[in-house]
Design goal:
This protein is mostly helical. It has one domain. Helix content is 82%, strand content 0%. Helix 4 crosses helix 5, helix 5 runs antiparallel to helix 7 and helix 7 crosses helix 8. The relative contact order is 0.11.
């Protein structure tokens, strides 16, 4: 009886988690159309989930790769034969995560109320318009003539402006900042991210130099002993 009850409980928990995940996915449409109350409820009323945020981030990365590989040659000149999918994804994923870390680090010092989890979720939900607009436009581009390219460019610009606006509102609601303070900390976040990237590059450069030194020392010792 206890075993059967335990199995039923686990099934009920899985079903509840799946239902919550699906609801958090659908809630993204409310967030991008009503960002002020949408982002507030996303974090403070727990309407979003980290799993949904992961999904939107993955879709963003896939959309970028599909855009490079499938957009009409009239509108993009990416060397498809040389595209490395993982490098392309990494070139977006790493800066995205560094921006999240920089924003969390900077706002923690100045009374920001958002946790890293909240910042990450808000940033991921803000990427939804990129996928919603740019993925269909990638397919539509193959049916457009060069003269109709202005439509393609306008739609891409709308998707980017929409995402930037959502990032601004999302971070403002997460940290409970005023618009002016949010703008200042967006600039501070970019500067902080640049510092983090510089420190990472310096660290890996020093690590590479140290590894090369020890490898050279080992080879020299090996040759002298033999």
């Amino acid at each position: 009886m206890n075993a059967a009850r335990s199995i039923e409980t686990r099934k009920a928990d899985r079903l509840a988690r799946r239902q919550r995940y699906l609801e958090s996915l659908k809630y993204a449409f409310h967030v991008i159309t009503h960002p002020f109350d949408g982002f507030w409820d996303l974090v403070h009323e727990h309407r979003g989930t980290v799993a949904a945020a992961h999904t939107f981030l993955i879709l963003f990365l896939l959309t970028r790769v599909i855009k490079l590989m499938c957009t009409s040659f009239q509108f993009i000149t990416a060397p498809v034969q040389y595209i490395n999918v993982f490098e392309e994804m990494g070139s977006l994923l790493l800066p995205f995560l560094i921006l999240c870390v920089a924003n969390w680090a900077m706002t923690t010092l100045f009374d920001g109320k958002g946790r890293f989890r909240d910042i990450y979720m808000a940033m991921c939900y803000a990427l939804v318009p990129y996928t919603l607009i740019q993925l269909p436009m990638t397919l539509i581009s193959n049916g457009l003539s060069y003269e109709e390219g202005s439509l393609y460019s306008v739609m891409l610009s709308i998707s980017l402006i929409w995402c930037v606006f959502l990032v601004f509102v999302g971070l403002m609601q997460v940290h409970d900042y005023s618009p002016g303070k949010t703008f200042i900390f967006l600039i501070v976040t970019v500067v902080g991210a640049a510092v983090i990237i510089f420190l990472m590059l310096t660290f890996f450069s020093l690590l590479s130099d140290a590894a090369s030194y020890f490898i050279s020392l080992y080879r020299e010792t090996f040759f002298r002993l033999n």
